[in-house]
Every structure is written in C-alpha cells, then in structure tokens.
Amino acid sequence: PKRFRFFRYTWRLTYLSAIAGTAYLAYGVYELRHPDDQFSPDPTKKNLVILGTGWGAVSLLKKLDTENYNVIVISPRNYFLFTPLLPSCTTGTVEHRSIMEPIRSITRHKKAAVKFYEAEATKIDPDRKVVSIDDISDVKGASSKTDVPYDMLVVSVGAENATFGIPGVKEHSCFLKEIGDAQQIRKKIMDCVETATFKDQSPEEVERLLHMVVVGGGPTGVEFAGELQDFIDQDIKKWIPEIADKFKVTLIEALPNVLPMFSKQLIEYTESTFKEEKITIKTKTAVKKVTDKTVEAEATGPDGKKFTEIMPYGLLVWATGNAVRPVVKDLMSSIPAQKDSRRGLAVNEYLVVQGAKDIWATGDCAVAGYAPTAQVASQEGAFLARLFNTMAKSEAIENQIHELSSELNLKPGVDAAAVAREIEAHEKQLRRIKDIKPFHYTHQGSLAYIGSERAVADVSWMNGNFATGGGLTYLFWRSAYLSMCFSTRNRVLVVVDWLKSKAFGRDVSRE
Ligand code: FAD
Ligand code: NAI
Predict the structure, then answer these.
(1) Of 373, 391, 409, which one is at a domain's C-terminal end?
(2) 211-229: per-residue pLDDT in tens?
(3) Which stretches of 116-263 are DSSP H helices?
(4) What is the pLDDT of residue 509?
(5) If you measure from the C-alpha of residue 309 to the centroid of ligand 1, how many angstroms do you get, rounded to a whole number?
(6) Ligand 2 centroid to 259 CA: how many Å?
(7) pLDDT by residue (tens digit) across 212-271?
(8) Which CATH number do you get for residue 312?
C-alpha cells in the first residue's frame, strides 16, 4: 500500500541522512587529526607579527593566506577562548576545556607554517619596529626576554578588567575574563557552601558566606548571576538542603537599569525574570570600597537622596567592563596622534593605528567606534585578513609588472605589443584588487542568557530589529552559540556537557 511505501521512503531518507551526517563528522575529525604537510615560509617575505590569540587575532589567522608572509603569533595564552560560554564554566554547565581551542591546532592547519611564541608583549617600539616579549610562564629557558622585529604588526591584545582604582577590588574579588577566573569562581562557590555548613558556624556568618554579590549589570554580570542562581536552585539546594533557604544573589549596578545595550522591553523582562528567580537587583548603586568580607556602596534612594550601604558577602564577582592594557597604554603614549584617545588605540577605517606606520589594531584594544564585543573583533580580524591577502596579491602583480617593464626596456627582440598588452591586463587586475572598501561592521544582534532556561535577544533582521525573550530565545541562544564555536571538537564537547549536566546535574565537588 501507498502509505507503507511513504514510511519506507521516509525511513530510508532518515537512515541515509544519518549515514551522511556521520560520514561528514568522521571526515571533519579525520581532517582535524591529520593536517596536510606545511611548507616553510619564505624568509624574504615580510614579518607579520600578530599579538594575541583572542577573537580578533584568531579570526585574522583563520582567513589569512599565511604563505604570503612570515607570520608570528605572540600571546601569553596558547589557546583561543570562546568567551560567550565562559559564564557557564563558573558553575560546570560547560567544562572549561570544551570552549578552548589550542592555537597549535589552528596554526598547524594553515598552508604555510606559522610561528607561535607563548609570551606577553611588554613593549612596542614603532620607530625601531620591534616588539619586546617576555615568557611569563613558570618554566623558563635560557632565553625568556627578547625582541621580535616586524614589518607589519597587528595589536589584538584585548582589554583588562576595569576596577576604576576602587580600593580592595583587585585583592578581594573574582573577575570573569579568563578560564582561570571561571575556575576560581567555581571553586569559591563551593568553598563558601562548605564553610557555611562547617560545625558551629554562626547564623550571621552562614548568611554572609551564602551571599553572592555580582558588581556590574552589563551582560557579563547578568549572565553570571543567571548561571549562579541556576546552579543554586537546580543542584546545590538538592545536595545540601539544610542551607537551601539561606542563599542570596545580589546584582549591583551604578546605572538606573541593567543591560543598557538592550531594548527597554528586554531590560524589563530581565528584571522581572530576576525577581522570579529571587535575584536582588540594586540599581543606582555604585560600589566605592571592597574589604575581604564587605562591599560598601553609595546608593540613591527613590527620593534622590544618597546613602551608604554595607553588604557582607561570601563571593564577590567584579564585572564592570574593560580597561586599557599596559602595553597598549605605553604604545599610545609614544604616538602623539593618540594623545586624546582614552579607551584604546584610535584606528582609521582600515584599522590602521592613527599616527603609526605598519601597525593595525582590532578588537577590545582598538577604538573604531563600535562596542567591545566578540562580533566586532571577529569581523575586524576577517577584514584584516582580506586586506593583507589583497596587499600580498597586489605586491606580486606589481613585481610582475616591474619585470615585464624591464623586459620591454632591456631585452632586444621581444614582442613589445604583446608585453604591453600583458602589462595593461596586470594593471587592470591591480586596480580591481586595490579597490578595497573600508571596514564596515554588520551588527547581527545581541544575545544574553538570564537564567532559568531563558534568554533575551535583540536581533537585526531584514533591515529591522527584533526583540525577544524567553524559553524559545534560550534555544536560539544555544544553537547560535553552538554554531559559533570554533571547531567541531568544541561543538561536540559543549553538547556533551549540556547533556551531562542535564542528566546528572552539575558537579558540586570542589577541585
Ligand atoms: P580577547 O579575545 O580578550 O583576546 C586578547 C588576546 O590577547 C588573548 O589571547 C590574550 O591572552 C592576549 N594578550 C593579552 N595581553 C597580551 C600581551 N601583552 N601580549 C600579547 N598578547 C596578549 N562578546 C560578544 O559579542 N558576545 C558574547 O556573548 C560575549 N560574551 C562574553 C562573555 C564574557 C564572560 C566576556 C568576558 C566577554 C564576552 N564578550 C562577548 C566580549 C568578547 O569576549 C570580547 O569583546 C572579545 O574577546 C574581544 O576580542 P579581542 O581579540 O579584542 O580580545
Ligand atoms: P559592561 O561595560 O557592559 O558593563 C559594566 C557595568 O558595570 C556597567 O553597566 C556599569 O554601569 C557598571 N559599573 C561600573 N562601575 C560600577 C560600580 N563601581 N558599581 C556598580 N556598577 C558599576 O561590561 P561587561 O558586562 O563586562 O561587558 C564588556 C563587553 O563585553 C561589552 O561590550 C559587552 O557587550 C560584551 N559582552 C557581551 C555579552 C553578550 O553579548 N552576551 C556577554 C558579556 C560581555
């Protein structure tokens, strides 16, 4: 009968798709594990030095034709970090290695070999065209500080955590920027829990230890608060019921609302979701001082009057945005054209550092008129790759034109008309290649997880904006971030982590 035939075909189609999917995945894994042989870079080519292994640098590296340059990557971190899922690492929803991609695997898959030095750039000398680097790792060889000369330099070192010089912040709080920060937070959450259940602990001390304070209502602070409350509600309370009603999460923000970059409707949705989740939001409250056990803030009441509030805490996470790294500050101070720039290296529309020669900057350390996000950094990195690939191509054509012209002038008996035609064709090609448009950022939208399997999204769609929040947005958030993960390996590991934490719960052991 016809309907059985339909089922048989559907089943066959599903079966074939599964085989094709598995074959594709297997091929991806095979390719990852068996990179092609690389050829050594030509020493006569230009030295292209890239500082950093974050969003900007890796997106440049991914699209760069490395055979055109001697590429040298320098960073204290020998991996790329997928920051959007970093808040999930603080509670073990995702394991930290799942969102790290070794830089060696990225460089090894390039056509021409790329050098990598695990070191921090400590100084950039634009006059001598050298970068001073320092191996800051624990194991040091006979050489640990040296200079690397460059012909072209890309500064993509990101930013450090802003503390605004507020006393006690550096000493007592946890930041959330690097893998080590997420691991420290995960450990500290469980340390607070175990200490709160210690024998003969006073009720005030239990209350303090289980008060988790987050400073900064930007996306980092909001996403972390949401993940933390999930961990407490879905796991910790189950395993340690005797303190279940003692947990408190407070989010402190100096401005009148959280998530200022999102639309009003999504700000209200986030605030009401936090209320449901029992996360306290204290807006118009600016932290002024931190001690080992308290946070001191200046709050503005509904009557406009200011008052001081002291909050005891067990865990304090500081997420108040970005500050300029010392190596960037130092470079800015050596370039007169950068004297009015405050938030990073001012760049032109081709991402060239203003007032400097042969230096480009991308991402959080560059000021190009966009927000410091991964989206911007990766688009800037990809733009630079296109720019450098084009520059190399046009240089090759210019050399060919030069050779043909000397043939025309020096070699007797050449077909002058044919050579002239060839030169003209090359010049035409050159004009086409050289017509590179300036960098243009395409905003794809903002997404943030807000806890209890809900997310908010301001998505740019068909020349308009589309604001949405809730459970379906959470599925969209998950699939969007999964597709953005660096490699198939990362994607598989993240999915396994999600399934693992859903099935068995998050691990509450303190490493
Ligand atoms: P980074 O990615 O920070 O990379 C900087 C690199 O430079 C690192 O490899 C670092 O080790 C290296 N480096 C540092 N100092 C030196 C030195 N002296 N010499 C050489 N190398 C150095 N953005 C989004 O668009 N969407 C999100 O969902 C999102 N989520 C985020 C979540 C969190 C928790 C955080 C902290 C940020 C998030 N962001 C997100 C912002 C995004 O991560 C940054 O804008 C992005 O990382 C900037 O890229 P970058 O290349 O400039 O810097
Ligand atoms: P942020 O700069 O976006 O927010 C920091 C917040 O801290 C500000 O709202 C500020 O008013 C507040 N603040 C500053 N000092 C304070 C004080 N003393 N007391 C109380 N509040 C204080 O920083 P964040 O969240 O770290 O983000 C940095 C960048 O990374 C942003 O560009 C952001 O868009 C991006 N990002 C994007 C994410 C996403 O798209 N999901 C996730 C995380 C970061």
Answers:
(1) 391
(2) 999 999 999 999 999 999 9
(3) 169-172, 179-196, 203-209, 219-231, 237-239
(4) 95
(5) 33
(6) 8
(7) 999 999 999 999 999 999 999 999 999 999 999 999 999 999 999 999 999 999 999 999
(8) 3.50.50.100
